[in-house]
Design goal:
alpha+beta
């Protein structure tokens, strides 16, 4: 955990520099969302451990080929199981969400979500292995939605639901997103972290 926190502190100014420039950068939109929540009596803040803050953003680019660039899966339990976050207050959040801002996307890379939030029993019956991936045949009976992702889009979804990233349409396509996670700590607090 200390290595993670040291890296966050070392890279914070570099990450901030990525979003400098004209227009409404991702940090500005997060600040605007925080002001909106504050009007509702809810505080959006960075998760902390012993006075040190978690990371704010990470950049992700998926290059894998196949039916999906990222296979159908859930993330809620994985977020809590990450060793570098084991002592953080995020262990107490009730629901986890991913927020993403698409920095670049030519074609493909859609967000695909199925209308199921598996519990432990259904997850074991539908998936394989300790890091569950869900095969197509197990998901066929559930409604699904496919959301095209374009450069400039910002989207938020419940990572407890089974979701995937659609395939790239060609080898030259790159989908780059800025990502952060959020979770409800209590009635008046939402945490964010990476």
């Amino acid at each position: 955990m200390d290595a993670y926190l040291d890296e966050v502190e070392r890279d914070r100014s570099s990450m901030a520099a990525l979003f400098e420039g004209p227009g409404r950068a991702v940090p500005d939109l997060v600040d605007e969302y925080a002001r909106h929540l504050a009007g509702e009596g809810i505080r959006l803040r960075v998760a902390e451990h012993q006075g040190r803050q978690a990371g704010l953003f990470k950049l992700r680019s998926r290059q894998r080929g196949g039916a999906y660039t990222l296979e159908p899966h859930t993330d809620a339990s994985a977020f809590r199981a990450m060793p570098h976050l084991s002592g953080f207050e995020i262990q107490r959040v009730s629901r986890c969400y991913s927020a993403l801002a698409c920095v670049k996307n030519v074609a493909g890379g859609e967000l695909v979500c199925w209308n199921i939030t598996p519990d432990e029993e259904s997850s074991q019956s539908m998936s394989s292995g300790p890091d569950p991936r869900y095969p197509q045949e197990a998901l066929a009976r559930f409604d699904r939605i496919t959301i095209p992702i374009r450069t400039g889009d910002i989207y938020l979804f419940d990572v407890g639901k089974i979701h995937a990233v659609g395939q790239r349409h060609d080898e030259e396509s790159t989908r780059l997103v800025a990502q952060w996670n959020m979770g409800v700590l209590d009635d008046t607090t939402i945490l964010r972290w990476v």
